[in-house]
Amino acid sequence: MSTKSERISDVLIEQISYILETEVKNKDIKFVTITDAKVTNDLSFAKIYYTVLNDDKKAETAKALKSAAGYIRHELRDRMDVRQIPELNFVYDESIEYGQKIEKILEEIKEGKIKTDE
User: Fold this and answer.
1) pLDDT tens digits for the chain (118 residues)?
2) What's the whole-model pTM score?
């Protein structure tokens, strides 16, 4: 990723987080954390990675973010100094769940609940 796209990714994370926290009224989006953003080199598309506080609300949150993407993109036009605001594609960030699963397995190995071949 180029320096420019990294800089834009950082601004996207910051601004989208702020917009979700202060301006979006949908209750399904209130407990969303933006964890990362990946912007294509031509700056036309951005994958916005997020997590939710309540795992039971993943589907509702995904639907709400998809419907709010146009509004968020419109709000970003006033806040970012770029010629074109990328299309926003919200993607659930599974890396935190994966990390917790690995940590649980390591803890079970440490406690002797899982046998390892030594």
Assistant:
1) 678 888 899 999 999 999 999 888 888 787 899 999 999 988 899 999 999 988 788 889 999 999 999 999 999 998 888 888 999 999 999 887 788 888 888 888 887 776 666 5
2) 0.81
Q: What is the CATH number of the domain that holds 87?
A: 3.30.300.20
Residue in the structure block whose two tokens are 């700056």 = 43
Element containing residue 106 per DSSP (H, E): helix 95-111
Beta carbons of 15 and 79 less than 8 angstroms apart? yes
Q: Is residue 76 part of a domain?
A: yes
Q: In what order do the strands lie in the sheet with 87-92?
A: 32-39, 45-52, 87-92
Q: Angle 62-65-69 (CA atoms, 0-180°, nearest 5)? A: 140
Residues 6+ away with beta carbon under 8 Å from 13: 34, 35, 36, 37, 48
Q: Does some domain include residue 112?
A: no
Residue 32, domain member (yes or no): yes
CA 72 centroid distance within chain:
14
